[in-house]
Amino acid sequence: MKHAIVTGASKGLGKALAQAMAARGYDVLLVARSEALLEQLASEITQQHPVKAHCLALDLALPVSADQIAAWCADRGFQPSVLINNAGFACWGYFEKLSLALQLQMLNLHVQGMVALTHQLLPALRKHEQAYVLNVSSTTAYQAVPTLSLYAASKTFVRSFSRGLRYELRNSPVSVTCLSPGPMSTNFIAEANMHAMQQTAAKFEMTADEVARRGVKAMFNRRAEVIPGWMNRLTVVLSKVVPDALLERIASNLYQSKLS
């Protein structure tokens, strides 16, 4: 049986990614903080697909979480050939006014948690004839975004780390892909208290199911990066030719002007 781990699997894109892997015949280990939501998703998956769905409720922002996941896999003979690092959230507002503790929690989740879990599981992934890592970044990874400064910076790290690790592993069985979605019709905006951005985001939103489908397809095709949606791809292309100062002004007009 094929095994996959999906972090941040309780809702949104993580839930869609877990369902996409189950549809491909993978037993899944669902990891997130909410045990109730994980159990609900596990029940849905096992009803819809002939696979097993396991739940592990923990906070990936904590340093011990990667060790706990690796130990869980070893104890139960769960041998992942796919690791999907999706867990994340956003803090919207001025850096100096936002809670430092909350911002550091976000940074630990996006950076430390992803790095630690990937490092822990690479030996297990290498044991397979083919194995895959899918790291979820964002279109914000391609430019600085005032009022999402630390979020965008952390997603830049995810993208850079993914590309560097991919090259290091180019002669191994493990392929690394970076998924960089734009706005999605999930609870992301609500959880980041970005309600004022809802109307603007709705013009460009993709469904989580569609983003997950494209991300998983790109992962199995061993692509380096995937940016779902033509508008998102155009935005990224423009970010490479438009001066940084102009990009920052445009982003500020879009996000900062909506802050109450």
What is the strand and helix layout of this fold?
Layout: E1 2-7, H1 12-23, E2 26-32, H2 35-48, E3 53-57, H3 65-76, E4 80-85, H4 100-126, E5 131-136, H5 149-168, E6 174-179, H6 188-191, H7 198-202, H8 208-220, E7 225-226, H9 230-239, H10 244-255
Parallel strand pairs: 1-2, 1-4, 2-3, 4-5, 5-6, 6-7
Helix pairs in contact: 1-8, 3-4, 4-5
Query: What's the order of the H and E elements?
Result: EHEHEHEHEHEHHHEHH
Q: How many separate domains? A: 1
Task: Please identify the top-level CATH class.
Answer: Alpha Beta
Structural class: alpha/beta
Task: Look at the structure and name the CATH superfamily.
Answer: NAD(P)-binding Rossmann-like Domain
Structural features, described:
The protein has a 7-stranded parallel β-sheet, sandwiched between helices. Helix 2 links the parallel strand 2 and strand 3. The protein has 260 residues and is of the alpha/beta class. Helix 1 packs across helix 8, helix 3 runs parallel beside helix 4 and helix 4 packs parallel to helix 5. The chain has a single domain, classed as 3-Layer(aba) Sandwich (Rossmann fold).
What are the salient characteristics of this protein?
260 residues, alpha/beta, Rossmann fold, 10 helices, 15% strand
Write a compact overview of the structure shown.
The protein has 260 residues and is α/β, with parallel strands linked by helices. The chain is built from ten helices and seven strands.
